Amino acid sequence: MRWLLLTYKVPPEPSAKRLALWRRLKSLGAVYLQNGVCVLPKTDEHVRRLKVLENDIATMQGECVLLETIALDKAQENKVIARFTDERNDQYQELLGRCKDFEAEIDKEISTQKFTYAELDEEETDLKKLENWYEKIQKLDFYGAPLAPLAQERLQACQARLDAYAQMVYDAHEENG
Fold first, then answer.
1. Roughly how many angstroms between the first and final C-alpha of the chain, as a whole number?
2. How many angstroms separate the CA atoms of 91 and 133, rounded?
3. Which of 25, 36, 50, 103 fits 30 for a cystine, CB–CB 3.0-4.6 Å?
4. Is there a cis peptide before residue 14, judged by omega within 30 degrees of 0?
5. Looking at the structure, do residues 12 and 49 belong to the same domain, yes or no?
């Protein structure tokens, strides 16, 4: 298993540029081993994107080194993989919390009998956001985080809950036939 290791140092100011760099690395799924040192699985796409970041770091009057590396042994490799899966699990855990909030919101609308098309549209938009978020996490889940199947299952439950609510909205407006 091969990784790309990026080490970098950028000026502390302007902090917005430093933060933007950090966000771009995180959006690729990079895991920080320590401050200014991150790792990604080696893929052609990651090589291309890190080369672009290398130029951006130089533009910021920073410096970086980009290396292809392998773990010294299986135990070290497992440590790196665990870092990736832990980060994805954290993201899936947050998504699961939002799924719970989504279901609670629908339950509230049902209990107050708020069966409006506007509310249904809002709930559909919220579910789409959850699905898009799941897809982003999944794209960065390089090693199959344990919470991935549960997150997918909960999203399906959210969809089923929304479908049931939609039927209630249609029934309330006598448009189900």
1. 57
2. 9
3. 25
4. yes
5. yes
CATH, residue 50: 3.30.70.240
Q: Which two tokens stand for residue 117?
A: 């098309």
Split at pLDDT 50, 70, 90, the class of 174 is confident
Identity at 65, one-letter amino acid code = V
**Phi and psi, residue 120, nearest 5°:** -60, -45
Produce one character per residue of 61-70: b if its CB has 16 or more CB atoms within 10 Å, e if not.
Answer: ebebeeeeee
96-149 confidence digits (pLDDT tens): 999 999 999 999 999 999 999 999 999 999 999 999 999 999 999 999 999 999
Residue 170 carries which DSSP code? H
Q: What is the pLDDT of residues 45-94, one digit of tens each?
A: 999 999 999 999 999 999 999 999 999 999 999 999 999 999 999 999 99
Cα–Cα distance for residue pair 128/53, rounded to 1 Å: 31
CB 7 within 8 A of CB 65: yes
Domain coverage including residue 92: 85-175
Specify which residues 41 forms β-bridges with: 3
Per-residue pLDDT tens for 141-168?
999 999 999 999 999 999 999 999 999 9
Reported as type and span, the H/E element at residue 38 is strand 37-41
